[in-house]
Specification:
217 residues; alpha/beta; Metallo-beta-lactamase, Chain A; 28% strand; globular; Metallo-B-lactamas; MBL_Glyoxalase_II; metal-binding
Length: 217
């Protein structure tokens, strides 16, 4: 059975996710751990659960989602996976990290580039991928239908959507992608977002003020 553990890290209150199943193989999504205590919290959980981390995955590469990339790669000796369109986004982080209060940010490089034609396999679990640009140019979401889990990054939130005023963002692109890629998932699929509480597809289709049935135009 697929299980999920979330951690909220850094001043952006970013959600880092660990997915693992009965085999104890795991993947880590969007490690926002910057401070030593945050890194220790993540490592302690993996150790306590006896997990073997197979992959580190970035849904996208804005600073709050990649602060712990180098730590996770080094600590668990795992490859970093991301979409090719996020390479320039990741490479730009050092140019502004200090301005955001992260002078000790460590750079990282991806080992594998993935897209919506790929699947993530670990243990007995398969995660499918969809391409949802608009918040970031190479934003990916990951889901498992049997477990009803979707790792949505900064695309869809409880009652909101990702901001689109950052470089590479586009508001209409995000709206269209949410409708075509997220809202075509099962309505009882739980959405785990990059910030804030979880929600589900059915609720957001009905009530989301940006893309739901009651959207204000």
């Amino acid at each position: 059975m697929l299980q999920l553990r979330s951690f909220t890290f850094n001043p952006f209150m970013e959600n880092t996710y660990v997915l693992y199943d009965e085999t104890k193989e795991a993947v880590i999504f969007d490690p926002g751990c910057y401070e030593k205590r945050e890194q220790q919290t993540l490592q302690a959980f993996v150790t306590a659960e006896g997990l073997t981390v197979k992959y580190l995955i970035n849904t996208h590469c804005h600073i709050d989602h990649v602060l712990g990339n180098a730590f996770v790669k080094r600590t668990f000796n795992v490859p970093l996976l991301m979409h090719q369109f996020e390479i320039p986004v990741l490479k730009s982080v050092p140019s502004y990290a200090s301005n955001y209060g992260f002078p000790a940010y460590e750079e990282s490089e991806p080992e594998h580039l993935i897209d919506e034609s790929d699947e993530i396999k670990f243990g007995n679990t398969v995660l499918k991928i969809r391409f949802v640009p608009g918040h970031a140019p190479g934003h990916l979401i990951f889901y498992n239908e049997s477990a009803k889990i979707c790792i949505a990054g900064d695309t869809l939130f409880q009652g909101s959507i990702g901001r689109t005023d950052l470089p590479g963002g586009d508001h209409q692109t995000l709206l269209d992608a949410i409708k075509s890629q997220l809202f075509t998932l099962p309505e009882d699929m739980t959405v785990y977002s990059g910030h804030g509480p979880e929600t589900n597809i059915g609720l957001e289709k009905e009530h989301n003020p940006f893309v739901g049935k009651r959207a204000r135009f």
